[in-house]
Amino acid sequence: MQANISNEEVAQIQQKIQAQSFLKNLVYISKEQAATDFSNELGQDFVNFLGYNPLMGSFQVKIIEAYNQPEELIKVEAFLKGLDKVSEVNYQRGAFDLAQKNLNIISLVLFGLAAVFGIIAVVLIHNTVKLNLYAQRFLIKSMQLVGATNWFITKPFILQSIKNGFYGWLITLVLLFGLNQVIPNWVPEWAEFSHGKMLLYMDLGLLFIGLLISITSSFFSTRKYLFTRLEDLY
Fold first, then answer.
1. Do the Cβ atoms of 68 and 24 come closer than 8 Å?
2. CA-closest candidate to residue 6, choices 92, 98, 84
3. Dihedral in degrees, nearest 10, Cα atoms 66, 70, 71, 74
4. Domain boundaries, the chain
5. What number of CA atoms fall less than 13 Å from residue 91's CA on the CB side?
6. pLDDT tens per residue, range 118-150
7. What does residue 30 show for φ and ψ, rounded to 5 degrees?
8. Could you say which architecture CATH assigns to the domain 7-91?
C-alpha cells in the first residue's frame, strides 16, 4: 500500500477485496506491525537505528483453489493493481510457474500409476468373481436342469456381488478418511485445501466403478456356465 493511506481507505479497500469471489482469506498488516515483525526477525530495532519506518502496510491475500491458475492469477493481479492506494502487487510468479510445471509432471506420473493399479484391481476383482462362480458351476447347471430360468439363477449371484462391492466400498471410505486425517501430519499445507467436494466425487466414482465391475463379472461368468454343456464342466 502507499505510505499516505488512511485507516478509512484501508477499510474501503478491505471491503472491496472481501466482496470478490476469488478471496479465501484476507489479512491486513499495518506498517507498524510489519516493522515489529521485521525487528523480531533481525533481533534489533531497525526503526530506531534508521530514525524512521521505511516499510509500508500491506494486504495478505489468499485465493481459493479455483483461481490457482496462471490466467486467473493475472486477472486477480490486475484487479488488485487497479485499487486506489495500491503501489505494488507481488505473488512470486516465477516460483508459482515452476511449481505448476512440477505439479503437471507429478500429475502425469501419478495418473499413469493410478491407471496401472486400476487395471490390476479390475483384473483381480474379475478373477475373484470368476473363481467364486467356478466353484458353484455344478449348482448353476443343476438349477438350470430342474427348470429354473436364467434370470432366476443369475440374480442371487449378482446380488451377492453387489453386497461384496458395497462392503469393499465402505472399507475404502474408512481408509480414505483415515488417510485424509493423517496426511496433514506429514504435509501441513494439505489442511489448507478444501477436499470435501473432491472426496465426495471420488467416493461416488469408486462406488459406481466397483459395483459395475462386480455386476458385469457376475453376469457374464454366470451366463458362461449356463450355456456350457454339462460334460464340459468337469
1. no
2. 84
3. 100
4. 7-91, 97-233
5. 23
6. 888 888 888 888 888 888 888 888 888 888 888
7. -70, 165
8. 2-Layer Sandwich (3.30)
